[in-house]
Amino acid sequence: MAESRRILLIGGNSRHFHAAKALDLEVVYCQFPADFNPEYGSLIEGALLADYTDWDTFRPLVKAAYEAWGFSTVVSLTEPGLDPAGRVNDLLGLGGTSYEVSHRFTNKYTMRRWLAEVAAPDVPIVASAVVAGRESMAEFGAEHGYPFIVKPSAGTASFGVYQVTDESTIDTVLAEIGERRADTSHPLTQVYDLDQYLMEEYLDGPVYSAEAFSFEGRHIVLANTEAVTLEGTVVHAGHAVPARLAPEHEDAVSTAIPAFLDAMGYRDGPSHTEFKLTERGPVVIESQNRIGGALINEMVHAVYGIDMHELTMGRPHRLVEEITVRPAAKGAAASWLVVAEPGEIVEIGGVDGALADPDTLGIDLGGAKPGDVVRSLDGSWDGLGHVAVRDADTGSAIDASLAKVADIKVHTRPAADPRD
């Protein structure tokens, strides 16, 4: 283990800085120039302001930063920063997750191909193929049945996910994919390559996620999160901890998720793995080698007393203890997506009152402010953020999160189409 207590943090926000500073870690920060907040200046030792997803640009800059500041580990808890963090680990021999392993998480087709090649006995295989025009979709439907799912190989927040219900809907989905590829106005198109689309067999069952942490190849599921999907969409509007799973299903998840992470070659750090509980048992939809969004960390902390930000920052330096057994849950927590009518934000109200409630765990509106534009709700990314609350049990926590999010009033007016 390196003696330096200085880390390179790629992307991230104030919660990540404070977790590092609470552990007395020094931070060298990398961020897109437009996203750098001057308030972070007092919290960091140095900064790289660059497009860190462009490796040709980032590589020489990170080498110079390493020579200047001598960080010993690299951390990213934001999706676009995961692969760059892997590249930095490889380049500088820092020993963290490699680019090869990280990319199995960040690219869904790479994940499906890898799992099919490894053929781990405890990891169910999901049929998949790349969209290569109408014929490929018709062939996939004929072989694997309808409905099936089409989604970007890269991306996040349920953006660009479609269900092909029968052959007659193929042309409609293809047209919508074409519109997505041509529309450069959405924020996701700035940081993700949304050109390649993946077909996957449909998995029937409720959606959950497993929040896990890996300690040198030993994986422990810290919490199971229940996802609440908006009717008629694939948008996860609500999340609740602990998930209402029967004991036998809890046991199945505790076996299936470590088996999946083993198959992926993942050894250290946080993971957020979405799965469906099917007739075959838990089957992975996708996974990220980071902490889940939607204020999941705040909910896990409230219910189980585990701060995954602290674990992620401190574990490489052995500043936090290894967890061997998940603590018993104390109450429950839930978060809900804040949405508004599409248009330009005129006013946001109710935030101070909601924060004053001691049962409010957090409100994250992503810096939304008057003048910003609210998009139509095509994925959770198009929501403004989340409100998380605690309550006695999972059902009441979901109800409380719905009530609390209703207190946040976002007023909008029609805005010009950014594509005009």
SSE inventory with pairings:
Layout: E1 6-10, H1 14-22, E2 26-31, E3 46-49, H2 55-69, E4 73-75, H3 79-92, H4 99-106, H5 108-118, E5 128-130, H6 134-144, E6 148-152, E7 162-164, H7 170-182, E8 197-201, E9 207-215, E10 218-229, E11 236-241, H8 247-264, E12 269-278, E13 281-288, H9 296-304, H10 308-314, E14 332-338, E15 343-349, H11 351-356, E16 360-364, E17 373-374, E18 385-391, H12 394-406, E19 409-413
Quick structural gist:
With 420 residues, the chain is of the alpha+beta class. It contains 12 helices and 19 strands.
Explain how this protein is built:
The chain is α+β, with helices and mostly antiparallel strands. The protein folds into four domains: 6-96, Rossmann fold, CATH 3.40.50; 127-201, Dna Ligase, domain 1, CATH 3.30.1490; 204-330, D-amino Acid Aminotransferase, Chain A, domain 1 (2-Layer Sandwich); 331-420, D-amino Acid Aminotransferase, Chain A, domain 1. The chain has helices spanning 14-22, 55-69, 79-92, 99-106, 108-118, 134-144, 170-182, 247-264, 296-304, 308-314, 351-356, 394-406; strands at residues 6-10, 26-31, 46-49, 73-75, 128-130, 148-152, 162-164, 197-201, 207-215, 218-229, 236-241, 269-278, 281-288, 332-338, 343-349, 360-364, 373-374, 385-391, 409-413. The strands form four sheets. The chain has an eight-stranded antiparallel sheet with strand order 13-12-9-10-11-14-18-16, sandwiched between helices. A four-stranded parallel sheet has the order 3-2-1-4, sandwiched between helices. The longest helix has 18 residues, at 247-264. The N and C termini lie far apart (54 Å). The model has no long low-confidence stretch (mean pLDDT 90).
